[in-house]
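We modelled the chain as a single entity of 194 amino acids. Its sequence is:
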Amino acid sequence: MKRIKHIALYLLMTAILVVQVYPIFWIFMTSLKTAEEVRTKSTFALPSSLCFDNYVRAVTTSDLALYFKNSLIVLFITITALVLLSSTAAFVGSVLNLKPVLTPNKECSRLDKFGIGRTMKGAVKAVFRQMKKDQVGKEDILYIAHGNVPEDALAIEAMAKEEFPGIDIRIHLLSHVFITQGGPGCVALQHIRR
């Protein structure tokens, strides 16, 4: 059964590769055809002989230097704007000490914004309010995973014990994947019914 799954996975990956690579191959092969071959032969036919005249014509009749310069200008403006806006937003967030609270969407395919807290305590209280709506209690396990901030995890554990007496709480380090997404110092809360 496992072998069949591997074969099916490789067939799927091969199909995706063909779908992704074939258009590039087709464009390249068409660029090597003469104008006559493009007009008369099937669009899927390979060129009868390799004709590099199209490349020579593209270099000699167009202003490639101008096109390249325009691309560099757009690239420079875009990257500069991205860096300025991202760093400005990060600065404002750090000055205001904003703590984003994320939650999985219904399909569990991405994280969506649940809310924003001005402090870690405020962010955790927002999560606890939702947990109370979800009727989390003694029959649940609360996992607190942290990105190398055990003091925050212990503070959240104390808050959880106060809000949810008798709940089973387990503290773990976050994996590197989550730390990459959330940044150093992030904390994840998850409750699972036993």
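As a brief sanity check on the tokenised model: The mean pLDDT is 87. Strands lie at 99-104, 111-117, 140-146, 168-173, 187-193.
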